[in-house]
Amino acid sequence: MSNSKFEIFKSPANSQYYFHLKAGNGKITLSSEGYIAKQSCKDGITSVKLNAPDEQRYERRQNNSYTFVLKARNGEVIGRSQSYASAESRDAGIDSVKEDAPGADVDDLS
Fold first, then answer.
1. Of 99, 70, 83, 90, residue with least CA distance to 3
2. What is the pLDDT of residues 50-74, one digit of tens each?
3. In whole numbers, what is the pLDDT of the chain averaged over residues?
4. Which residues cross the membrane (predicted)?
5. pLDDT digits (tens, 9 = 90+) for 12-27
6. Which of 8, 16, 39, 40 sees the fewest Cβ atoms within 10 Å?
7. Domains in the chain, start-ordered, CATH in brackets?
8. Is there a contact between 74 and 38 (Cβ–Cβ < 8 Å)?
């Protein structure tokens, strides 16, 4: 069993709530947009947990680096990855989110 977890935090810069998913190694594999209400942030985590296992929810991107976004069924982006140096490492990041997100605990740091 991995030690992956979602962390909820509040930005001092804009007072919005965010979450990120940390893999068992402590690295952030997915980050959210800002939410005004904490409950909306929690709802975003629920959406990630539900959509993460579905390959069709991932959009792979390549500009100067390799990234991906996770989209909800309605097409809205619910999480963004870090930048990766290769397509292979990006795809490994997607595999990590697929495996880790559904069962990850939530740690509210706000």
1. 99
2. 999 999 999 999 988 999 999 999 9
3. 95
4. none
5. 999 999 999 999 889 9
6. 39
7. 5-108 (2.30.29.80)
8. no
